[in-house]
Amino acid sequence: MNLSLAAATIKRLNYWLSEQQSVVEFQWSPIMWGSTWSFLIISISTYIITSATLHLLLLLFIGRRRPIPLGPIPVLHSLAMSLISATIFLGILSSAAAEIRDTRWIWQRSKTPFQWLLCFPIGTRPSGRVFFWSYVFYLSRFLHIFRTFFTILRRRSLSFFQLFNHSILICMSFLWLEFSQSFQVIAILLMTLVFTLVYGYRFWIEIGFRRARFPFVMNCHLIFLGCNLACHIGVLLLHFYKGGCNGMGAWFFNSVLNSFVLLIFLRSYVKTYNLIRENYFHVAASSISQVGDFLTSQTSNKLAVPRGEPKI
Length: 312
Fold this sequence. Notes:
Layout: H1 2-19, H2 21-24, H3 37-61, H4 73-107, H5 113-118, H6 129-144, H7 146-155, H8 160-178, H9 184-206, H10 216-241, H11 248-278, H12 280-284, H13 294-299
Helix pairs in contact: 1-4, 3-7, 3-8, 4-6, 4-9, 6-8, 8-11, 9-10, 10-11
Protein name: Elongation of fatty acids protein 3-like protein
Transmembrane segments: 37-63, 75-98, 130-146, 158-177, 183-204, 216-238, 250-270
Keywords: Fatty acid biosynthesis, Fatty acid metabolism, Lipid biosynthesis, Lipid metabolism, Membrane, Transferase, Transmembrane, Transmembrane helix
């Protein structure tokens, strides 16, 4: 009885994730919300200008030492982002399996399923199950940026890395859809898995539980960036040795942006670990109220002891 109930639940979940009409018949088009270049440019510019303006106004009129209480909003945001990321992960995993099942006969002589995940055939259009969840991921990036405003309101800190990273994620997810870019399935799977863990961890510590005795968020992102780099190399090899991959112009642009993110992150990672080794017991005992933007706290406040992990 329990097995049949579980099977029925999985079947129904799979239907909603990859078989319902709105998912199967999805098509990326200029009439959809957020699908134009002007929207992309205006939204990213507005995000950066609003963040910088809010930061400066708060410093000017309130100062650094008076955080604005936000109540349960950051907690609910972390919980919502963890659940949304988990849903996107399951959705694109189920949809990729369905797409491989339905279209493998077209490319099975030239590609394996893993190669298809990395390298879309030339001529792939942004339609169908996978691109539906790619669009949902793109929309979720606009919820993700609210964390910047939480940091500004609670800690008066604003880092270039946070602004750059969030803006790049919005830009990259737009390009995935606009150019049917290869590699996006693996990238979304990796990122949503990381975001599920990171936001779940943030929710855990926001409600009062003990935080990890190591930089959990940084380590999750380090693993992600390592896997991301390996997959980028795989896409490049498949493009030159397996007949070409779709959307390689956008892929190259994304690779350049990812390289900047990787370099900035590795710099902060090494710096954080050096300071953690020097002040291990203080960091391990820090409460959630002390968890701030590490890079900003080091460069702006000139503190001798790190107060947490960089916001990503």
